[in-house]
Amino acid sequence: MEVFPECYEETAWVGVRWRVGQATVCHLFGGEDQLYRITFRAEPDEVLAFEHLGAPYFKGEWGGNVVGMFVEEATDWDELAELLTDSFCLQAPQRLAALVARPSA
């Protein structure tokens, strides 16, 4: 996540997470059931859309705007990069978010 200014990696209670300040941008965990998951933040209307899409997406059980997806062979890495960029821009202070090119822009 070097493309996100002031974003850092740390060990979480399970897995690894990336944060900006004290805000979590994404959290990667799993494996014990042979499934890996990554959670990230999204706009409220996008959370509903992801929830209705179903697998590989799911709504996080904590926080109002947390979405997750299963990381698997079929993962669209370009789409995931866009989702993580959006998550960073939602979580970061405006001065840092302004430094990042958003794919949807």
From TrEMBL:
This is MmcQ/YjbR family DNA-binding protein. It comes from Nocardioides silvaticus.
